[in-house]
Structure formats: C-alpha cells, structure tokens
Amino acid sequence: MTETRFREHMASGMGRSYSLWLLALIIAAILLTYLFHSNIFVLSLIQELAVMILFATAYNLMLGFSGLLSFGHGGLFGIGAYTLALLMVKVKLSALWALMAAPLLTSIAAWGMGWLCLRLTGVYFAFLTLAFSQLIWAVIWKWRSLTGGDDGIIGIELSGAIGSSAGLFLLILIVVIVCAVLIKMLLIDSQFGFALRLIRENPRRAKAIGINVRGYQLLVFCASGFFTGIAGALYALHSGGAFVEYASVAKSFEPIWCSLVGGIYTFVGPIVGAALMLGLDHFISRFTESWALFAGAVLIIVVLFAPEGIVRLAECFYRRLFRRVGVEKWA
How many alpha carbons lie under 13 Å from residue 174 in its C-beta half-sphere? Predict the structure, then answer.
C-alpha cells in the first residue's frame, strides 16, 4: 500500500469513527431530552454544563494545544452573548440567524485581538489579552444606549421548535456536540493540530522547518474565538439575556480553571474540569456562599500534586492498576 493510499485509508477510518461518535452523542441528547423534558432544573443544569464544556474546550485550543495563556476569552464570550441578544431583541432576527452571526463577529474580534497580541510572547501576551478583555467589558458597561450597561439586555423570546424548554435543551446539546466533534476532528486530530503541538513544544524548531508560527497561532486564536462566540450565544439563549458579567475578567478565569484542573494536554480534561466547576458552583453553594474558596483549594491541590490534571492522574492510576492485574494474572 502506497503512502498516499495509506493516508486516505486512515482518514476514511477516522471519518467513520467521528461520524459514529457524532451519531451516538446526538442519540444520547435526544434520549436525555425525552427522559428529563418535564424537569426544568435538570434541563437547565445540563444546558449550563454543555455551554461550559464548549467554552473550556474552545479555550484549551489556546492553552493546552498551542501553549498560549490568554486572559481575554471572557471578553470574547461576552461579544458572542451580546451579539445574539442585540440581534434578537433590537433587530428582531430569529434565534438561528443570530446564533450563526454571533461566532462570526466574535472570530473577527478574536482576529483583531490576536493580530495585535501575538506580537508579544509570554507574560506580555497574557496581560495584553487581559487588557483587551477589560476594554470589551468597559465598552459594554459604558455604552448604555446599545448594551443596557449594568442592566444588560433582557427579553429574548424563543418560538417554534425551540420555544419550549425541551426544544432549547436539545438545540444547545446538538450544537455543543457538533462543535466538540469538529474541534476534535479538524483542530486537534489533524495536521493542523500536530503543527500546533510542535509550535507549543518548540517554536524555534517549528519555524526552522518552515512552519508559519505566527500564522498558525493567529488561526487557532480565531478558531478558539469562533467556538467561544458560539458558547456565549448559547449561554445568552440559556439565560434569556446578556449581562455585563459575561465579559468580566472573572469569566476569563473559568475556562482556565477547567483546563488546569481537568488537564490541559487532553481533549477530555476541560470537560472534566467544567463538570467539577459546575458541581462546586451548584452544590457547594447550597451550604456556603464561599464556594469559590473550595474552587481555589481544588486548583492549588491539583497544581501541587497533579500538575498535568485529573485526567492524566486517572490515566496513570489506571495504567498502574492494569500492570498490577496483568502481573498477578501471569504470575
């Protein structure tokens, strides 16, 4: 088998695998909708988790797979949320059209932010993205005639198939599933993803072999912003409006926490981190208002004792257990 045919064979096999995963996850989303269609609390909780998973996964394209620490994704999340809310409330566009427009505008904003910030590296890059996020927050806060200022934008009305809680739930889950599969297939398990990981490990070597380092970094910044915009728009649908807190610096730290705790070098890591953060937020806060104190303690423990994240720690434990069982089996 020639190298070209081998690559085509591998690509077709991977394509079938992703198609099966996509089909299975969509069927699971339909089953969840059927099982919990009358339980508003469970539907809302799963919706919030799905949006947080997409936000964290999109962000980890920057931190985990490109080695770029950005503090500006809260601003991009806010742009996605406000774009959808403004188009639906003031322009009277339908939810689907607004949902398509939000990530496009967010990716344009991400391109502008990346084009300027990627001129710097390391801590200077990180703090410049933080400055842009603060700028976006300030514009939303001060431009009261357009954004509503600290009152936000409320009054998103849904109709048709997504007018019910179950319909909105199914829409959010399907959009998040499709986005997650696209991120995995096109941006991580691809030649583009391989180039990103090479740039992360050794940018000088990547540049020496002909890779346009800044070009790839700008592309992944735009891709991350695109999916962050979708997450922000979905969250606006979930909450029924857009508020200035969606663009705050605190929002920027949420995907960072999820990625670090779950594991930045794995696709599943941010998903696990998002589930843990949502659990702390909803369940620990029932007993104390200082749930963020527990979140900080979890982050410190993970950084000190499992710096590669919970997922890598679980993988290491599984391998050791498997080896021990194998030794006992053959002894």
Answer: 13
Enter the tokens of residue 106: 């967010």
Residues contacting residue 104 through CB under 8 Å, at least 6 positions apart: 226, 229
Nearest to 83 by CA among 200, 305, 236, 214: 236
Residues 6+ apart with CB under 8 A from 73: 55, 58, 59, 62, 133, 224, 225, 228, 251, 252, 255
Residue type, 237: L
Using DSSP, state whether 154 is helix, strand or coil: strand
CA distance 106 to 227: 9
Residues 202-234: tens digit of each pLDDT:
999 999 999 999 999 999 999 999 999 999 999
Place of tokens 């009261």: 144
Q: What is the pLDDT of residues 238-256, one digit of tens each?
A: 999 999 999 998 999 999 9
Residues in the chain: 331
SS3 state of residue 267: coil
- Of 284, 291, 262, 315, the C-alpha closest to 56 is 262
